[in-house]
Amino acid sequence: MLLAASLLLKVLAVPLLARVAWLDFTTQKISNRDVLLLLCLGIGSMQFMSIQAGSWWDMGLSVIVGFALFVVLFPIWVLRKVGAGDVKLIAVVPFLAGGTDLVLFTLLLLVFALITAAVVKNPFMLPAGAFRLYAEHLDRKGVVPFGVPISIAAICAIVFHIVSRVTGYGGIENFL
Questions:
Q1: In the predicted model, is pLDDT for residue 169 greater than 70?
Q2: What is the arithmetic mean of pLDDT over 121-131?
Q3: Do 13 and 38 touch, CB atoms closer than 8 A?
Q4: Is the pTM of this model over 0.90?
Q5: From its phi and psi, is residue 24 left (phi > 0), alpha (psi between -120 and 50) or beta?
Q6: Alpha-carbon gap, residue 52 to 16, rounded angstroms
Q7: What sign for the dihedral angle of Cα 62, 68, 70, 73?
Q8: How far apart are the C-alpha atoms of 12 and 35, rounded to whole Å?
Q9: d(CA 57, CA 134)
């Protein structure tokens, strides 16, 4: 029952992450309300998993990693190299991904961030003319919607977590 509740909260986070990605892509803004709601869903899911496992290790690891990400990225925000919403979002993601899937999230984030940077720098790789013009506009403004790769990587990590728990694989450590 606790596993089902935890997985339900993770499932609820997926459309919210998709909304965050879309709004960041279109408006370059990530609302505090969305980040706070994601934090609540992540903490709730982690608590159910911790009670079921009888260990608070994943919760503690998520708190440490989330805090470390915030502390490391805060000066980058002060220098205006990344948005405040991006910093808050990436600090919340460890609660959504969970301690066991942080490696997977990190690898996915690296891949999606590189793809995003390539698309913004080379918009002619894209098929649609309107999308190409929008990407050129993003490049001219010097704004890259970093919330998009963060959200996509988080969604993929959550989906992997859900599938691994439902099928019984247990996590990424079985694949490495």
A1: no
A2: 64
A3: yes
A4: no
A5: alpha
A6: 25
A7: negative
A8: 13
A9: 44
